Amino acid sequence: xxxxxxxxxxxxxxxxxxxxxxxxxxxxxxxxxxxxxxxxxxxxxxxxxxxxxxxxxxxxxxxxxxxxxxxxxxxxxxxxxxxxxxxxxxxxxxxxxxxxxxx
Length: 103
Known about the structure:
Blueprint: E1 3-6, E2 12-15, H1 17-24, H2 35-41, E3 45-49, E4 55-62, E5 70-79, E6 82-91, E7 97-102
Antiparallel strand pairs: 1-2, 3-4, 3-7, 4-5, 5-6
């Protein structure tokens, strides 16, 4: 069953069971799904993907994660009136692209 989150701008963002399973294939993401809502609601930086302008990358910095100090990125595809999570992962820094929002 899909989960629905709200982002910083009040948009509903879906997380399908298929995408959740994809995210959880990465061992460091086990037990981290609950953090996705916090990243969407209170990001540090939002960047438009260089690869696909319909993909928005929400970044939130965490001092402690299963893989040390990292950013958690939630990649969201926005299409017309639909937004859905593509993937989520930890990374060392903010991804390149047009910064569309910053804390």
